[in-house]
Design brief:
Blueprint (H helix, E strand, L loop, with lengths): L10 H9 L11 H18 L14 H12 L8 H5 L16 E4 L16 E4 L2 H5 L27 E8 L4 E8 L7 H12 L4 H14 L1 H4 L11 H19 L5 H11 L3 H11 L5
Antiparallel strand pairs: 1-2, 3-4
Helix pairs in contact: 1-2, 9-10
Bound molecules: zinc ion.
Length: about 290
C-alpha cells in the first residue's frame, strides 16, 4: 500500500491518435472515432470522482469498442508507449499490497467489468501478483461505501495504517500473528479494512511475516539490518535499532505500509517481543 504520484500521460492525445488510426479496423476503428466523446467524458468523470467506483457512471459504449480497448491493453499498438512507465513507477514496493516486487500492473476498476478505462493511465497502477489474487474485488458494503483504495487519489495511503499483533506461546516457541489496524476508528476504516482483506492479506502478508519471525528466532540482525551482527546490545538499544529499521524502510520504499515496516511496528508494540529479540540477538552473535 502506497500513495503514489501518477506518471504524466496525456490520455486525451493518445485517444485522438488511436481514434484516427484506420489501420486499427480490427479493434477500435471507427468505433473509437465515433464514440470518442463518450470516452473523454468517462475519463473526466473518473478524475473528478477520484476513481471511486461508488460515484463513477459507467458509460454506454458498444461491445466492439469494449473488446477493442481490451485488445489494446493486452497487445498495445505502437502508439501506446506508457504502459511500461506505469509498471516501473514504484520499483521498491507494490502500491496495492505493500509487498516488495511489483512486476506487473493492476486496474483499479477491473478491466473485465470496466472496459472503458482499460487503457486509461489513471486506472493503471504498478502491482505484484496481488493483482491476480485480488481478482475483481472492488466494492464492499453499500452502507459503508467500502472500496479498494486508490494509490493516486487516496491520501490516507500515506499514513501508517497497518501493524501486526504478535503473541507468543510456550516460552516463545510458537507465535500467533494477526494484521491489526493502527487507528481502528479512522474515518476511512471501512475502505482500509476492505482493501486489507481483499488485497494485502490475500497477497500473503501473514505468511511472509511468520517467515520473518522464524528468521528472527535464528538471528535478529538478519531481518533487522540496523542491528550490529557482532556486538551485544541492551533492550533499549535493540528497540532503537528496530525504530531505526522502521524509519529507514519507510523512507526507502516511500511507504509506511510496506511489509517490513508492518513487522517492525508490530515488534515494537507487541508485549515481550523486544525483550525476546534482545535475548535472541545476544545469544546468536556472529563470532569474529
Ligand atoms: Zn502487490
Amino acid at each position: 500500500m502506497k500513495k503514489l504520484t501518477p506518471v504524466i500521460v496525456n490520455d486525451l492525445r493518445y485517444l485522438d491518435e488511436l481514434a484516427e488510426n484506420d489501420s486499427l479496423h480490427k479493434t477500435t476503428f471507427p468505433e473509437l472515432r465515433d464514440q470518442k466523446q463518450v470516452l473523454i467524458q468517462a475519463y473526466n468523470d473518473y478524475v473528478v470522482n477520484c476513481g471511486n467506483p461508488w460515484s463513477i457512471a459507467v458509460p454506454a459504449i458498444n461491445d466492439k469498442l469494449k473488446s477493442g480497448l481490451l485488445s489494446h491493453y493486452s497487445s498495445p499498438p505502437v502508439s501506446i508507449d506508457y504502459l511500461d512507465r506505469i509498471k516501473d513507477s514504484s520499483p521498491d514496493v507494490c502500491p496495492m499490497c505493500g509487498g516488495f516486487k511489483p512486476f506487473t500492473r493492476d486496474h483499479i476498476l477491473p478491466k473485465s467489468d470496466y472496459q472503458a478505462w482499460a487503457i486509461f493511465s489513471k486506472n493503471l497502477v504498478p502491482a505484484c501478483d496481488c493483482n491476480l489474487k485480488r481478482g475483481t474485488a472492488l466494492k464492499g458494503n453499500i452502507a459503508t461505501q467500502a472500496r479498494v483504495l486508490h494509490p493516486y487519489f487516496d491520501d490516507v495511503l500515506a499514513d501508517r495504517l497497518l501493524s501486526c499483533k504478535i503473541t507468543h506461546r510456550s516460552n516463545y516457541r510458537w507465535f500467533d500473528l494477526d494484521i491489526v489496524y493502527v487507528n481502528p476508528i479512522h474515518p476511512e476504516i471501512a475502505s482500509i479494512k476492505y482493501h486489507t482483506r481483499n488485497i494485502v492479506i490475500k497477497s500473503g502478508v501473514e505468511k511472509w511475516l511468520k517467515g520473518q519471525l522464524t528468521k528472527l528466532k535464528e538471528r535478529p540482525s538478519t531481518v533487522i539490518q540496523t542491528l550490529p551482527k557482532r556486538r551485544p546490545l541492551t533492550e533499549e538499544r535493540v528497540r532503537e535499532g528496530i525504530e531505526d529499521c522502521l524509519d529507514r524502510n519507510d523512507e526507502l520504499t516511500g511507504s509506511k505500509n510496506n511489509w517490513l515496516s508492518i513487522l517492525c511496528h508490530g515488534l515494537l508494540n507487541s508485549d515481550g517481543m523486544v525483550h525476546w529479540l534482545t535475548e535472541r540477538h545476544n545469544a546468536t552473535l556472529v563470532q569474529p
